[in-house]
Write a structure and sequence with these properties.
- This protein is mostly helical.
- The protein has 8 helices and no strands.
- The protein has helices spanning 2-12, 19-33, 38-47, 52-71, 73-86, 90-106, 121-132, 141-147.
- Helix 1 packs across helix 4, helix 2 (19-33) packs across helix 4 and helix 2 (19-33) packs across helix 8 (141-147).
- The radius of gyration is 19 Å and the shape is globular.
- The relative contact order is 0.13.
Amino acid sequence: MGRVLALREAGRQDLPTYFDGQAQVLAALRCREGLASGDDIMQWMSDNGIGNEEFRRLVEEEAKIAMLQRFYRRSTDREIETVIVETGHFPGLARRAKDKEDKLAGLGDVGASTQACGLDDDALLRWFVGDVLRRPVVASLGAYAGALGFASEA
C-alpha cells in the first residue's frame, strides 16, 4: 500500500528521476542483496524473473520513492516517534540509549569516533558488512549509508 501511494504521489508531483538518484538506488540494491558484480545483478534479475525493462522501471520507481522519502523526512521522523510511543517501545529504547551513553561516558569519550579507535570508515564498513553480516562489500561507507536512507555518513 505504501509503495502504491508513494508512486501515485510521485506521479501527482510529476517527479523526474535523476541519474544520481538511480545510481543510489542501484547501490542500495547491491548492498542489500550482496551483489558484488554485474554477473551477480544479472543472476538476481534471472532469479526474480525480471527483464531489463522491468529492472529499469524498478530502479526508476525506487528513485522516485527515495526522493519522496527525503522530501517528507521531517514528517516521517515525527510519525516514527509517534508510532514508537503508541506501540510502547519508547521506554525500552530510551533505556538502551541511556545505557549506551553511560557506557561511552565511562570510557571517557562521549564523542568517540572510528578514527579515534584507529579505523577509517571504509575499514569499519568492511568489518561490519564482510565479517559481521558475512556479505560481499560492494560500496563505500557513503554509498552504504545512502543506500540505507541516511542523510550522511555521520
